[in-house]
Write a structure and sequence with these properties.
The chain has 323 residues and is of the alpha+beta class. It has eleven helices and eleven strands. Helix content is 42%, strand content 18%.
Length: 323
């Protein structure tokens, strides 16, 4: 199979979201398949000690690969953890002639370049029920579940968990140091974008001061005032389930972005163990919360987060042998 064609799929895969914009993936491209490999050098041991969010991020990239492949006339077949000797190989996606009966909505591939994370307050405009139902269907299709939090009392409770999570995280010096390391200028092409001249000061402030109460109050307000607040989860909580969560999340985000709706994340309640258990009880679901997100219509267009080049995240080799 043409390597250039597969590399074009990788380019779209790199546009997936990731925690702190770490982009924790490597794509091993052969003439028959692409491996999605976790990059442990881009892990967040303080924020994500189990690698759960790293795996979810790679699942988002895997979904982009699947959608891009179908759009390119290929039928993707995915195998989780294909290399027993290397657990960092999260998934292998092989390609064959497309089965047109399973064609995906072409608007999803178009939305890959339209999706970005919008961390500012959304416009005071409700997300129509038709769009919400579409997002629920996308998550269900991938084997996950999505709870739409419409009850104001539940919203307040989740907002409280967000604030408590922020306080717990910011109280830890190691967590603050890790966050500070990922505050980077746009030219770095990864991390949380900060104006170049402000990077040293921003890092110093984050490392030196516990801003948990302030950040928690801001995020609590974002949760309570979001046009749409949702929790995405899975029925299991193993690494394969995290890949399911990432793929379900990305389908949701692309369905929303194609219709002008963007999202950002308030994941403190699933990043702090005791709070995750509280969130599970609050939702009364038979499963494991993986992502807390708010969605709505942006007030303004903003620049998408930067991405590393395809060459930086790809290795290419042939699998053909002589006969």
């Amino acid at each position: 199979m043409n390597a250039d064609k597969l590399l074009s799929l990788v380019r779209l895969a790199t546009l997936a979201p990731s925690s702190h914009n770490t982009q924790p993936w490597v794509f091993r491209v052969t003439d028959r398949y692409i491996d999605v490999v976790a990059d442990p050098t881009r892990s967040l041991p303080e924020n994500d000690p189990s690698g759960r969010e790293l795996t979810i991020s790679c699942g988002c990239a895997l979904m982009n690969l699947r959608i891009a492949a179908q759009h390119a006339g290929l039928q993707p077949e995915v195998e989780y953890f294909p290399d027993f000797g290397d657990p960092t190989v999260l998934a292998r996606i092989e390609f064959s002639a497309r089965d047109t009966s399973s064609d995906d909505d072409p608007s999803l591939v178009e939305a890959i370049t339209k999706r970005w994370t919008y961390r500012r307050p959304f416009a005071d405009r409700a997300v129509p029920d038709l769009i919400v139902r579409g997002m629920v269907q996308e998550v269900t299709r991938e084997g996950g579940w999505l709870v739409i939090v419409s009850d104001q009392s539940q919203r307040s409770d989740i907002g409280r968990l967000v604030a408590e999570g922020a306080a717990a995280q910011w109280s830890r010096r190691g967590w603050r140091r890790e966050l500070a390391r990922w505050m980077r200028p746009r030219a770095a092409r990864d991390g949380l974008v900060t104006p170049t001249v402000a990077v040293p000061l921003t890092r110093f402030v984050i490392r030196s001061f516990n801003l948990g109460r302030r950040i928690g109050a801001q995020d609590k307000q974002l949760a309570e005032q979001a046009p749409l607040l949702a929790v995405l989860g899975t029925y299991g909580d193993a690494a394969a389930d995290w890949l399911v969560a990432g793929q379900a999340l990305q389908r949701l985000l692309l369905r929303a972005a194609g219709l002008g709706v963007q999202a950002s994340f308030l994941n403190q309640p699933v990043q702090v163990g005791p709070l995750r258990e509280q969130l599970e009880r609050l939702l009364a679901v038979a499963g494991f919360p993986q992502i807390v997100l708010r969605l709505g219509y942006p007030n303004e267009q903003i620049a998408a987060a930067p991405r590393r080049s395809v060459g930086d995240v790809t290795s290419v080799r042939t699998t053909r042998t002589s006969g």
